[in-house]
Amino acid sequence: MDLVLASSSPRRQELLRAARIPFIVQASNVPEVIRAGEAPQDYCERLAFDKANAVWQNANQKDIIVLGADTTVVVGEHILEKPQDPHDALRMLRLLSGGSHVVITGVCLLGDGIHDVRSASTTVHVARLSDQELEDYVSSGEPMDKAGAYGIQGMFSRWITRIDGEYPNVVGLPISLVYQMLSSHGFFRGPKP
Prior knowledge:
This protein has about 190 residues and is α/β, with parallel strands linked by helices. It has helices at about 10-20, 40-55, 85-95, 130-140, 165-170, 175-185; strands at about 1-5, 25, 65-75, 80, 100-110, 115-125, 160-165. Strands 1, 2, 3, 4, 5, 6 and 7 form a seven-stranded mixed β-sheet that branches. α3 crosses α4. The N and C termini lie close together (about 10 Å).
């Protein structure tokens, strides 16, 4: 049985490789639009399902498990997706500076007889950034393709003062949860790669 990652995210791929979880990539193209009144956890879990389902519905074979995931950053009542432009990135980073926020990743496994949707949350604490630091970080280009306009594994790590929860979740995939889910559905019982 093959695991199909319904994402082109290089960070998710790196996390799976590091954990020695074999997979192939078949990215989905699902619009990430929050519904009115939708809670952040529900939003992430719905998108994870939608991404996995898009790949599952188009699969030529059914002896696969599709892994869908969606990560978002939540500050107070604000859901921070990927920034639209540098000004949007700066706005998001100002919300993060000097406080804490929650990173939520929804995870979905779909397969023959498998429909498992869960999520993980990690609290991240950020030092106060000066205006110059904010502008320099945005100018680096690093924030532009990341939820919440930052990557914990990159330059932004210098301002992370503490995390409560799973680090890989902040990168984009809660590996311990994914491993637990895959194990519960017998993924690791077959021949070893």
